[in-house]
Design goal:
CATH superfamily of chain B: Immunoglobulins
Radius of gyration of chain A: 13 Å
CATH superfamily of chain A: Immunoglobulins
Structural class of chain B: mainly beta
Strand content of chain A: over 45%
Number of domains of chain A: 1
CATH architecture of chain B: Sandwich
Largest sheet of chain B: 7 strands, mixed
Order of helices and strands of chain A: EEEEEEEEEEE
Low-confidence stretches of chain B: none
Radius of gyration of chain B: 13 Å
CATH architecture of chain A: Sandwich
Largest sheet of chain A: 6 strands, mixed
Low-confidence stretches of chain A: none
Strand content of chain B: over 45%
Oligomer: heterodimer
Helix content of chain A: under 10%
Structural class of chain A: mainly beta
Distance between the termini of chain B: 36 Å
Number of strands of chain A: 11
Largest interface: A-B, 26 and 29 residues
CATH topology of chain B: Immunoglobulin-like
Helix content of chain B: under 10%
CATH class of chain A: Mainly Beta
Chain lengths: 113, 113
C-alpha cells in the first residue's frame, strides 16, 4: 500500500522554465511533508518542507504547495537550472512517529540547457 | 565533519552469505535510520534507533539485524543473503525524533546473486 505516490517517473523542462513536481498521499493524518533531492551515487539531501498548518512554503527558487483537501503537494522550481537535474523524492510523516518518513517513488527531473 | 559515512560503497554477495553494512556519523545525532531503495521505488525504512542501546523495526525488517552500542555507529547485518535484498542501502541520522530533515550517507549498493 503506497501511502505517498509520485505518479510521474520523469520530467523534462528547458532551462529557465518552471518545473512542477507532484506528489499525492492517502493518509490524512500526515502532518509534515518534505522534499529531498538525490544526485547519482549520492544520498538524498533535504530540500524544503512544509507543515500541514501551512499551504505554501518558499525558499529561494523552490516553493512547496500543500492542498490538504486534495491530499496533494507540489514542488515548483523557478527558474529551473541544469544543476537541478536530479531525482526528487517527496516524503511524509506523522509527527508523533519518531522521524519515520514515508517516501514516494521519486521523479527524475532533467533540465535541458 | 564527515557527516554520515557508509562502507563499503559496493558489494556483491552470493546467496546465503552474510555481511555487515557499516554506518557512522560524527554529528552526535541520537536518531539513526537504515533505508533501502529498490529501482523505481521510494526509500523504505528497515530499522531505526533512538539512541545507543535502543533499536526498533521499520517497514521492512525481515532478513536484517541491527545494533547500536555507541551514538556514532549503527551497523546493519544481513544474515543469509537473498536476491530480494539486492538494493541500495542508505543510512541516515537526525538530532531528534521531531527533526525530520535527515542527513543521509552516500549509500551502499548491494547485489546478491
Amino acid at each position: 500500500d503506497q501511502q505517498v505516490k509520485q505518479n510521474s517517473p520523469s520530467l523534462s523542462v528547458q532551462e529557465g522554465r518552471i518545473s512542477i513536481l507532484n506528489c499525492d498521499y492517502t493518509n490524512s493524518m500526515f502532518d509534515y511533508f518534505l522534499w529531498y533531492k538525490k544526485y547519482p551515487a549520492e544520498g538524498p539531501t533535504f530540500l524544503i518542507s512544509i507543515s500541514s498548518i501551512k499551504d505554501k512554503n518558499e525558499d529561494g527558487r523552490f516553493t512547496v504547495f500543500l492542498n490538504k483537501s486534495a491530499k496533494h503537494l507540489s514542488l515548483h522550481i523557478v527558474p529551473s537550472q541544469p544543476g537541478d537535474s536530479a531525482v526528487y523524492f517527496c516524503a511524509a510523516i506523522l509527527s508523533s512517529n519518531t522521524g519515520k518518513l514515508i517516501f514516494g517513488q521519486g521523479t527524475t527531473l532533467q533540465v535541458k540547457p | 565533519n564527515a557527516g554520515v559515512t557508509q562502507t563499503p560503497k559496493f558489494r556483491i554477495l552470493k546467496i546465503g552469505q552474510s555481511m555487515t553494512l557499516q554506518c557512522a556519523q560524527d554529528m552526535n545525532h541520537n536518531y539513526m535510520y537504515w533505508y533501502r531503495q529498490d529501482p523505481g521505488m521510494g526509500l523504505k525504512l528497515i530499522y531505526y534507533s533512538v539512541g545507543a542501546g535502543i533499536t526498533d523495526k521499520g517497514e521492512v525488517p525481515n532478513g536484517y539485524n541491527v545494533s547500536r552500542s555507541t551514538t556514532e555507529d549503527f551497523p546493519l547485518r544481513l544474515e543469509l543473503a537473498a536476491p530480494s535484498q539486492t538494493s541500495v542501502y542508505f543510512c541516515a541520522s537526525s538530532p531528534s525524533g521531531n527533526y525530520y530533515e535527515l542527513y543521509f550517507g552516500p549509500g551502499t549498493r548491494l547485489t546478491v546473486t
